[in-house]
Specification:
Layout (H helix, E strand, L loop, with lengths): L6 H13 L7 H12 L3 H16 L2 H10 L11 H9 L3 H23 L8 H29 L4 H26 L7 H4 L4 H4 L2 H4 L3 H6 L2 H9 L2 H13 L5 H5 L2 H22 L1 H7 L4 H33 L4 H20 L4 H27 L5 H8 L2 H21 L1 E2 L5 E2 L7 H38 L1
Antiparallel strand pairs: 1-2
């Protein structure tokens, strides 16, 4: 029973949950049938995609819910006796996960009803609402798993965030393989085949029941208590006091928050604009539907490698050299700019090569920025702060996907023989990707400013803390 209550079993449970809830990453597979069945043009489809991006990144509610129902090491100082009793005896991450499962089922179920014609074709705003609900569920799974992981492994935040976020990215490839095996050539079946309640049916409550002990006495403090090494303990306490524990309002008033937010809008926004339009990009370049599905599946794999790799590598150099983590944001944004230029070239195989580069560096950002948030703003309100920074993704995606990519595609399109609007040739997206490469260069500069602003803090506080 003690082993079942360990933080390691909780991590395994988190991985299984993440593996089953990444349906938003396979939008490129079912978006063509959504477009044809509902009679959308590219800009309208991109509007639905933006609703997905907003839902998948608007995590404030999940952050507030997590703080309200989950016991943490800082809870007892600020909560009433009744609230503390609820959090310890009844509450836990399972409540957050259940809320996400309900939303996931409702959103995808009604989308499936609309696509299959069981219900009348809904207005575009209503379809956007269905997509928003389905994707919004992802923030609840993410918050429960990421914040718990960071609090359970305080010295290896980058690695644990990379693992948790990485398996979410990988879930897209797994869902596509399930579809290819069971529901081939029936993309409308893909979304309801994602059984949302699978995440909840895992005994989340028992698997996370160790969170109280894991957070009250982590491995670092347990060693100190057993050895009586109070000098080191006193130094760690002093270092902890130097780490800020800001709430959302306090974080919003800092320059570092807006530098991080703006850099993420450039990187995550251009990445989402690419993955949301990858089927249309492939179609314009002559790729078959099977090849574009393969591209989406491969994107998920590169996404996973980027998320896990960036978390591990940034942790390695932080422990070894004390490198400030924002420097890796500079590298990933530069890499994304290169990927955009490769796709813009329109050369044979460029979409495969460019999507590989972009998938890796795009995924890297999803493990880096939550970790950076936990280090420069503290973990007490991490759920609300990192979910607020994540809003940069739909903001950037809306501007770049709808106002740039969709607009230029529709402008270059014409009616084909079947009466549908389409565009053939590299000119359909070339200008869009050149502009997005420039946007990534801008984000690279913003991340570089953040690096210089936080470099001393990482050396004087974070590096010394992890070394002890």
């Amino acid at each position: 029973m003690e082993m079942m209550n360990s933080r390691w079993v909780g991590t395994v449970a988190s991985i299984w949950i993440q593996l089953s809830v990444g349906a938003s990453y396979v939008f490129g597979v079912y978006s063509p049938v959504l477009k044809s069945s509902q009679g959308y043009d590219q800009s309208t489809l991109d509007s639905v995609a933006v609703a997905k991006d907003i839902g998948a990144n608007f995590g404030l509610l999940s952050g507030f819910l997590y703080s309200a129902v989950v016991f943490t090491s800082s809870t007892s100082a600020s909560s009433s006796a009744s609230s503390l009793w609820f959090k310890r005896k009844i509450g836990g991450p399972w409540i957050v996960i259940t809320a996400g499962a309900i939303q996931c089922f409702i959103g995808y179920f009604f989308m499936w009803l609309a696509v299959t014609g069981i219900i009348p074709r809904p207005p575009v705003p209503l379809m956007c609402l269905f997509m928003f609900l389905a994707a919004h569920a992802q923030t609840f799974f993410n918050t429960a798993n990421v914040v718990t992981g960071v609090q359970n492994f305080p010295d290896y935040k980058g690695t644990i965030v990379g693992i948790i976020k990485g398996f979410l990215g990988l879930s897209g490839a797994i869902l596509i393989q399930v579809y290819q095996t069971i529901f081939v050539d029936k993309p409308r079946i893909l979304s309801p085949s994602v059984i949302a309640f699978r995440a909840h049916l895992t005994d989340s409550r028992s698997q996370y029941s160790s969170i109280d002990d894991a957070l009250l006495i982590n491995e670092e403090n347990r060693e100190l208590v057993l050895t009586g090494n109070y000098d080191n303990k006193r130094e760690i306490v002093l270092l902890d006091e130097k780490v800020p524990h800001l709430n959302l309002w306090q974080a919003l008033r800092t320059v570092n928050f807006w530098l991080l937010f703006s850099a993420m809008a450039c990187g995550l926004g251009s990445g989402m604009a690419t993955v949301n339009n990858i089927s249309q990009i492939g179609g314009s370049l002559g790729y078959t539907s099977v090849e574009t599905r393969t591209l989406v599946s491969l994107w998920s794999i590169w996404n996973f490698l980027g998320r896990f790799g960036a978390g591990f590598v940034s942790d390695y150099f932080l422990h070894l050299k004390g490198w400030a983590r924002p420097i890796f944001m500079v590298v990933t944004l530069a890499g994304m700019g290169l990927g955009h230029l490769v796709i813009a070239s329109g050369l044979p195989g460029a979409l495969y090569a460019g999507s590989t580069v972009m998938g890796i560096f795009y995924g890297s950002q999803w493990s880096l920025f939550p970790t950076i948030c936990s280090e420069i703003f503290g973990v007490t309100h991490l759920g609300t702060i990192f979910n607020t920074v994540a809003l940069a993704s739909p903001v950037g995606s809306y501007i770049l996907s709808v106002k740039l990519v969709g607009f230029i595609y529709d402008k270059e399109s014409s009616l084909n023989a079947s009466g549908h609007v389409s565009c053939v040739g590299s000119h359909c997206f070339m200008v869009s990707f050149i502009i997005m490469a420039g946007v990534c260069v801008l984000g690279c500069g913003l991340a570089l400013i953040l690096f210089f602003r936080t470099r001393k803090f990482y050396q004087d506080v974070i590096y010394k803390k992890v070394k002890h």
